[in-house]
Specification:
The protein has eleven helices and 13 strands. The protein is an alpha+beta fold. It folds into two domains: about 140 residues, 2-Layer Sandwich (Beta-Lactamase), CATH 3.30.450; about 160 residues, Alpha-Beta Plaits, CATH 3.30.70. The strands form three sheets. The chain has a six-stranded mixed β-sheet with strand order 9-10-8-11-12-13, sandwiched between helices. Strands 2-1-5-4-3 form a five-stranded antiparallel β-sheet. A two-stranded antiparallel ribbon has the order 6-7. A hairpin with a 2-residue loop joins strand 9 and strand 10. The longest helix is centred in the middle third of the chain and has 21 residues. The radius of gyration is 24 Å and the shape is elongated. The two termini are about 45 Å apart.
Length: about 300
């Protein structure tokens, strides 16, 4: 089931938005309500909440928050917002509009802004938010290693390139391939090969910055996207990772890995060219002895290797 299908089943108007407040998706209940006075709120909630409040809501993952809406905006509804769901590596915000209904019983909480929101509807929204986050995470994760999959890698690389174009800071792409992986599988079995893949994925994720993105592209090939990282810093990072792999116990036998890097600024090269150049540098490391770091320095028209 797609995440959109999950939200279509929500009985209250519900929208999904980017951290900037751009509309991504409205469920059927929201589309029906958007034709009336709720249109502005559902299509551009950041303008209703205000920039500062919306930024605070989207700055980090949060539990669903229920708050009354101004009577001139939506007198019959309260807003339930939840931040922290992700799609293709980007944070998203979920907004649901829940009717202000009176909860049966003497203990029902009330306020000056109106009667309490019906608890079971709030719980449903919370459940949908979690399902959305879980499904998006699985759709972007390599099942075996827990690293990003190729789809998420492509989005992360494009994000790094866009950020570089805006800031003027370089970005780097590091390609990584386990040396003699076929021999490991043939000699010790695929279970040991899988152990090596899982161990390498964890080692890479534990060894990079929070802004860096680690992906498994298939087989024994991994990639690390390094935003705001120049050529020298990328070589230092790759060399540190190379030594960590060399010294770690990831499976039945010691293993090594070869590295290839490309560095650029903005959209000087396409994502496809970045991948090709880093991959070419990687195989240069393989050809010159393995367990090496090679940087394809486009500005100098040559490659630099370390071992």
């Amino acid at each position: 089931m797609e995440w959109k299908d999950v939200f279509e089943a929500c009985p209250v108007p519900l929208g999904v938005y980017s951290a900037d407040g751009d509309l991504i998706f409205l469920n059927l209940a929201a589309k029906a309500a958007a034709g009336g006075p709720l249109m502005g709120l559902l299509t551009s909630p950041s303008s209703v909440f205000g920039h500062e409040e919306w930024t605070a809501m989207t700055s980090e993952p949060s539990e669903p928050l229920t708050s009354p809406l101004p009577k001139e905006v939506a007198p019959d509804y309260s807003a339930v917002t939840a931040a922290g769901a992700v799609s293709e590596g980007q944070p998203f915000v979920i907004l649901a509009l829940v009717p202000r209904t009176v909860v049966a019983g003497d203990a029902a909480p009330t306020s000056d802004q109106g009667a309490a929101v019906e608890p079971n509807l709030v719980i449903k929204v919370m459940e949908y938010q979690q399902k959305f986050a879980d499904q998006e995470r699985l759709a972007l994760t390599d099942v075996l290693t827990g690293a990003m999959n190729r789809r998420a890698f492509e989005a992360a690389l494009q994000t790094a390139m866009d950020d570089s174009a805006e800031s003027g800071d370089p970005f780097s792409l590091v390609m990584i391939d386990i040396d003699r992986f076929k021999s490991l599988n043939d000699t010790y079995g695929h279970q040991e090969g899988d152990r090596a893949l899982v161990g390498l994925g964890k080692l890479l994720r534990d060894s990079v910055r929070s802004i860096d993105r680690v992906a498994r592209l298939g087989g024994e090939e991994f990639a690390v996207v390094l935003p705001r990282t120049d050529a020298d810093a990328s070589i230092q990072t790759a060399e540190r990772l190379r030594l960590a792999v060399q010294d770690a116990t990831l499976c039945a036998i010691p293993i090594t890995a070869s590295f290839g890097i490309v560095t650029s600024v903005g959209t000087q090269i396409s994502p496809e060219d970045a991948y090709r150049l880093a991959d070419t540098a990687l195989y240069r490391s393989k050809e010159t002895g393995r367990n090496r770091v090679t940087h394809a320095d486009r500005s100098e028209g040559q490659e630099r290797s370390t071992a």
